[in-house]
Amino acid sequence: MKVTIEFDTEQDSYGEIDRVVREAFGLDKFRTKPSLLVDSEVWRDPDDSYNGPWTEDDVRSWVRELPEVLDVVVVVRQLCSTPGVWTTSAALGALLFPDEPKGSHRVGVAIRRTVKAGHRLDRRSGPYERDVKGFRSRVPAEVARIVLDELQHHPLHAEALAAAVQHRTSA
């Protein structure tokens, strides 16, 4: 048996492709998770139809899963300080690491670590939108509020705050 499914990667999202393939092979009936209460939904990843919505507890768990690496905390804090705005890795690198020619590389490594924290929670990535082709990210306002609140309990919060103040005064 041979099945061909064509997609336009410029127009079709990963979530849409995943949904069509699972529907074509009848996988939905085997890979369902219990639905979460809609009342507790904070954000829904448009590219991850399998795992369901993120709740406040999910977002807080994700923050606790972040590695104890200063770059990660600084990048996440900066992303959450401008909710709803697409931010490129290059712009973050120039802002956070202005003296380094490869600052965007440090940002990219930090973002990959946030994705791995999501994987540890059986998620596709973290609780934010990623445009992989454009190397940019955007955090919804409600998620940003929860992340910034939970970051206050992270072991590197004080250092990340000091780094943010230093970047603002040197800019």
Quick rundown:
By secondary structure, the chain is mainly α. The protein is 48% helix and 8% strand.
Task: Explain what the structure shows.
The protein has 171 residues and is mainly alpha-helical. The protein folds into 2 domains: 1-32; 37-170, no CATH class. Helix content is 48%, strand content 8%. The strands form 2 sheets. Strands 3-5-4 form a 3-stranded antiparallel beta sheet. A two-stranded antiparallel ribbon has the order 1-2. A hairpin with a 4-residue loop joins strand 4 (129-131) and strand 5.
| Portion in helices | 40-55%
Task: Kindly report how far apart the N and C termini lie.
Answer: 61 Å
Record field, number of beta strands? 5
> Using only CA atoms, what is the Rg?
18 Å
Shape designation: globular
Strand content: 5-15%
Average pLDDT across residues?
81
Count helical runs. 7
Q: Tell me which oligomeric state these chains represent.
A: single chain
| H-E string | HEEHHEHHEEHH
Strand order of the largest sheet: 3-5-4
Please mark out the parts with pLDDT under 50 across 5 or more consecutive residues, or reply none. Answer: 30-38
